[in-house]
Each structure stands twice: as C-alpha cells, then as structure tokens.
Amino acid sequence: MSAATKIEWTRGDDGAAGATWNVVTGCDEVSEGCDNCYAKTFAERWRGVPGHPFEQGFDVRLWPERLTLPLSWRKPRRVFVNSMSDLWHDQVEMDLIAQAFAVMAVAERHTFQVLTKRPGRMHSMLADERFWELVRGAAAELGPTTVTVLAIEQRRLPNLWLGVSVESEKWAPVRLDKLAATTVGAVRFASCEPLLGKLDLSPWLGAGLDWVIAGGESGPGARPMHPEWARSLREQCAAAKVAFFFKQWGAFAPEELGAWVAEDGSPRGAISLLDRGGRGWNGMEALAPADAVWMRRVGKGRAGRVLDGRTWDEFPASPGAGR
Predict the structure, then answer these.
(1) CA distances (Å), 270 to each of 4, 44, 223, 290, 294, in order?
(2) What's the pTM?
(3) Are 222 and 216 in contact (CB under 8 A)?
(4) Pairing state between β 18-21 and 78-81
(5) 82 φψ region: left (φ > 0), alpha (ψ -120 to 50), beta (else)
(6) pLDDT digit string (tens) for 170-210?
(7) What is the rounded CA–CA span in Å between residue 238 and residue 244?
(8) CA 150 to chain centre
(9) Could you tell me which of 171, 168, 175 has the C-alpha nearest to residue 196?
(10) 3-state secondary structure of 233
(11) Rounded to an integer, what distance in angstroms lies between the CA atom of residue 29 and that of residue 36?
(12) How many whole angstroms separate alpha carbon 37 and alpha carbon 144?
C-alpha cells in the first residue's frame, strides 16, 4: 500500500503528495522534542485493539513485509521513511536497516527522506563495512541496475536525504556534527520542529547542511514558538544560500497574524506572553521585556504557514528522483 501524506516537506516539486514508508513503528523518547510526540499520541489510541497496526501502541515493532513496497510505486515521489518511528532505534537490527537501504538504492526513481534523533548509531553503521555487505546482498536479490551497484559500492545514494531533528541549541552540535560527518546521502538536512528556542546553525550551514525545516509544535500540550526563532533560521539560511522551509506555526499563532481573533472580534484560545529566550510572562506583563510577544492557541489549521507575508517552501537542489 502507498501511504500518501500531507506532510508539506515531502511534497513533490509539482505539489503532488509524497508518501510515508514505515518498515518500523514505535519509538522511545530521547529529548525534549519528543515530549508531545504526535506519532506516540496517535499510536497509543489503538493499544489493545486486536488486529490494528498499533495494537501494541507505540512499542517498537518491525514490519519486514513492508520492505519492498516502494518498488511497486511506479510514479516517482518523495518518501518519508519511518514517519512513525526512527530507523536507527537500537531495537532495529542492522539486517533490516540494510534491507531498507537496498530497496532505497534499487528504487532509484524515488527520493527517500530519513530523519533521526539518533545520528550516532546512523553514522557508525553507515561507516561499517559489514553493513554495506548486507546492503549489497539484499540489493542483489532485487535486481539492481548498474547505477545501483555503483552507488552501493561508492557508499553514496543519490536519491537519499539524511536528516536530524534539532529542537534546541543543546542538540545542535550533538546531532549536526554526526550528520556532517556522514556523506552517504545526496542531501543533509535539519528538521527544527518543534522549534523550542533560538538556534545558531551557522557553523553547519554551507558546510554540509543543505536544507533547514522549521516549525512550531501542534497537538495537545503544544509549546508556542517565538517568531524571532523562525526568522533567525530563515536569515541564517539566506546568508548561507541554504534552502529554508517553514512548515507551520503549530498550535499557537502570533498576535500579528490576526488568526487569534474570532469572527465576532473576540479573542480565541489560551494565550501566552513569550520572550525570545522562551520564558513566559503571563501575569507579569508589566515586567516583560520588549521582545515578548503574545501567542494565542488557535490550532494548526488556523495558524497556518505564513511567515512575514509569504510561505517559505524552498527545497535543496539534488540529483535525486521523485522531485
């Protein structure tokens, strides 16, 4: 089955919906960006329901029967790998990851986007000769082309985009240094969603980082995103000539957007006075710094994706397919 997705940064250049490919489902929290995980919230709704794909809730589950699905998709597309998990989770065996890489190599027409919060395991495995021996063996059974064989031998897949999640300054060097040292994919990217504070990505922009996605948090328990955090990333990307993609405001919209006002002129939803450092000032408005802004909970749909009067839908230049 092809799981079409509405995720904006998986769309094709023609606007066509991308797909998700979940050879693993379930995960464990590793950092503050996981606190309100949409995938966990969704999966746990179905825990204990016999026969449901998430009968086990968000416990890690391997789906080897899904491995060859992309080979049956004729139309080139962007494919988000494991939207409901992390391919590099320590409960996912090397053999299954190698089989997934073999499929990605053989399915040359698609572009595969792999996002992780575990770049240490990603980097070490992709540098391991045993891993590539497994990839070669799995690919041989799928009928690889000459291009596929060469890509595997050179350990560089032209249709692979590797990314890491970076939600706060704390995690930037931890994850981006490992990503920068990994050269298997044609594109390396950072997903700064949920963006929980101001980030300085300048050490990696133009030095291996090809794309930045930014967005606020949505769903129950969502935390507001200060507009300056998103603007700062956009400006850093512009200075380095790196593609910038603004995915969403999330549950909270800034006062300036106007989405917080109902049709009758009354305000909507919970409100937060947030400064650039991420501190809330509700009840202390008189003491709030000048950079504090009102953010009101209006929901992801109403908040939208407009930043400073326009949408930012930049994609990296890549020789990969599915574009």
Answers:
(1) 33, 26, 11, 21, 10
(2) 0.94
(3) yes
(4) parallel
(5) left
(6) 999 999 999 999 999 999 999 999 999 999 999 999 888 99
(7) 8
(8) 28
(9) 168
(10) helix
(11) 10
(12) 37
